[in-house]
């Protein structure tokens, strides 16, 4: 039997959620902002209507538990956004999860493995990247991060004070036998190749660094070039050499960006004494990331020698690639075939909560096409037909996953006996 979502209800929920923090065609619903908290309270009410036991924990994760079952497939994503972001990033997976839970109850298809739903908090890193999912995985202790600050300087502790008191069941890693997340691709591949669904194979590892270059402030007109200690020139030499090194050691899916440059004193009549450069690179292979780390260190040594300077490299974020579970991924591929959708296996170039959860339990991700590949922008969008088709694939994939996970649990119980 091929299942179908209630498309009208699905799209109505998508548009209602998009109304919280609406900004033009997109949303500004950053973590712990009033629109974010209102959206979480709205979602909690919808999950309760769907027959789930509902709770909001002490970091703001919204959780719906199928109380009739001792184990569950966790389905969800995040509903916070970047500033002036899109209406689908994260939200798509949350509303898919809500609709899957509803249809599971309406069809009565769930056996021993239930459907739990979650909307993680601060996936976008307004305060701490993947705060909600890493908290659930016990990777973060709240006392260790409560002084983390937003770009506007607010401490996480002050943001947490705006949350309503936590209540209801808390997320329990021990009861979940798998995790399933749906998302827009945030890139152009599916649209350009006219494929309906992406079956995610892995989630990239990410390195964020700050490079600091130290020089000396001098008069830009009177100091001879060969007597200057110009931190800006150090930075430009570093970027030139590091880009060449990246081209040598990169993999086919390596991407990088030099994200921001700040200089002091920052005047055109004074040579820079201090420059900071933000660097990020990503790849789905740990070996490639390690090779880039080595190459960067070698470039730092060479530029330091060339200029007689001290260059400081500080790591800000380090995540390793995480493979998605092949068995669960195969169920997505099978579900796509069931509903007549084309599919392709592909890595994710963006980070997701599935990377945090997938280190501990089997995890899978589904992508739908993004129009023009746009994301993290108010121009982010997907065709309604793609949204509904993707929801039907996700619903049938969740049905297949719960059945598969239930069979596996049964075999384990037999072996235990």
Automatic annotation (TrEMBL):
Belongs to the peptidase M20 family. The keyword Ligase does not apply. It comes from the Bacteria. One of its GO terms (molecular function) is N-carbamoyl-L-amino-acid hydrolase activity. Keywords: Hydrolase, Manganese, Metal-binding. Pfam families: Peptidase_M20. This is N-carbamoyl-L-amino-acid hydrolase. InterPro entries: Amidase_Cbmase (IPR010158), Bact_exopeptidase_dim_dom (IPR036264), Peptidase_M20 (IPR002933). Its EC number is 3.5.1.87. It is an enzyme of class 3 (hydrolase). The keyword Transmembrane helix does not apply.
């Amino acid at each position: 039997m091929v299942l179908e979502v209630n498309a009208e209800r699905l799209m109505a929920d998508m548009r209602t959620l998009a109304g919280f923090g609406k900004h033009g065609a997109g949303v500004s619903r950053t973590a712990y902002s009033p629109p974010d908290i209102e959206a979480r309270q709205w979602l909690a009410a919808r999950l309760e209507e769907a027959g789930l036991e509902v709770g909001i924990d002490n970091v703001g994760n919204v959780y719906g538990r199928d109380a009739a079952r001792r184990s569950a497939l966790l389905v969800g994503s995040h509903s916070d956004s970047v500033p002036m972001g899109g209406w689908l990033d994260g939200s798509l997976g949350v509303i898919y999860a809500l609709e899957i839970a509803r249809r599971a109850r309406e069809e009565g298809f769930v056996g021993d493995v239930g459907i739990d739903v979650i909307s993680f908090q601060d996936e976008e890193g307004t305060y701490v990247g993947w705060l909600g999912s890493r908290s659930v995985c016990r990777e973060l202790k709240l006392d260790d991060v409560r002084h983390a600050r937003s770009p506007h300087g607010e401490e996480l502790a002050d943001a947490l004070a705006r949350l309503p008191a936590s209540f209801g069941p808390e997320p329990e890693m021990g009861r979940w036998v798998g995790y399933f997340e749906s998302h827009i691709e945030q890139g152009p591949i599916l649209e350009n190749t006219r494929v309906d669904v992406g079956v995610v194979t892995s989630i990239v590892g990410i390195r964020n660094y700050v490079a600091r270059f130290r020089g000396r402030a001098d008069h830009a007109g009177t100091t001879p070039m060969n007597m200057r200690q110009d931190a800006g020139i150090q930075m430009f030499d570093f970027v030139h050499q590091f880009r060449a090194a990246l081209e040598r050691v990169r993999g086919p899916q390596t991407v990088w960006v030099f994200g921001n440059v700040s200089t002091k004193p920052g005047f055109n009549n004074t040579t820079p004494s201090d420059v900071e450069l933000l660097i990020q690179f990503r790849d789905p292979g740990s070996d490639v990331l390690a090779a880039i780390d080595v190459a960067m260190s070698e470039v730092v040594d060479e530029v330091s020698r060339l200029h007689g300077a001290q260059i400081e490299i500080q790591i800000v974020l380090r995540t390793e690639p995480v493979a998605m579970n092949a068995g669960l991924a195969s169920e997505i591929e099978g579900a796509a075939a069931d509903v007549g959708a084309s599919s392709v296996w592909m890595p994710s170039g963006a980070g997701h909560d599935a990377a945090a959860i997938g280190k501990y339990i089997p995890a899978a991700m589904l992508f739908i096409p993004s129009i023009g590949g746009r994301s993290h922008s108010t121009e982010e969008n997907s065709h309604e037909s793609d949204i509904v088709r993707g929801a039907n694939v996700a619903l049938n994939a969740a049905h297949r996953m719960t059945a598969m996970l239930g069979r596996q649990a049964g075999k384990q119980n037999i072996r235990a006996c």
